Amino acid sequence: MSTSEHTISPTPAFDAGAALAAERARVMAAIANLDEALSQMKDPDADADHDFGEEGGEGAGAAVDRDRDAALRSQLLDHLDSVDAAERRLDDGTYGQCRTCRRPIASARLEVLAAATECVGCAGAPLLTRRSR
Ligand SMILES: [Zn+2]
Questions:
Q1: pLDDT of residue 63
Q2: Residues 29, 90: one domain?
C-alpha cells in the first residue's frame, strides 16, 4: 500500500479529539471486559466458605485474580477521569499545556499519552524511569 497522497505538514497535526475518543473507547472496552470477568468470578465465591487457611487452593487464586482485576479496574476508572479532564481542557483551549510549567507538551508525548497533563520534564519521564523493576 502506498500512501503518496499525504497532506504535507511540517508538524503532523495531532488530532487530540480523535485520540481522546479512541482512548476512551479503549478504556471503556477494558472496563467492560473486567466487569465480565469479575461477574463470572463472583458467583462461585459468593456462597463458598471462607476457607483460605491452606494455601494453593483455587479459591485463593481466584481471590488474587479478583483483587488484581479490581485494582486494574480502579486504575482504568482513574484513567477515564483523566481522559474526561483532557477533553475539558480541549474545550478550554488549554489542552497540551503542561499544568506545572505551562509550556506545551510535546506532541510525540501526547500521541502516546493523549491525556497527559505534564510535559516529560515535569512528569519525571515516567516512561523511562519506571522500567527499573
Ligand atoms: Zn512541564
A1: 82
A2: yes
Compute the distance between CA of residue 80 and CA of residue 125 in angstroms, rounded to an integer: 21
Domain, as residue range, for 43: 15-94
Instruction: Tell whether 54 and 100 lie within a shared domain.
Output: no
pLDDT at 127 exceeding the cut of 60: no
Give the pLDDT mean for 25-52: 77
* Within a domain: 5: no
**Residues lining ligand 1 (ion), CB within 5 A?**
98, 100-101, 119, 122
Query: pTM for this structure?
Result: 0.68
Per the structure, how many domains does the chain have?
A: 2
Query: How many angstroms is it from 79 CA to the middle of ligand 1?
Result: 20
Residue 89: count of CB within 10 angstroms of its CB: 18
CA of residue 124 to ligand 1 center, whole Å: 9
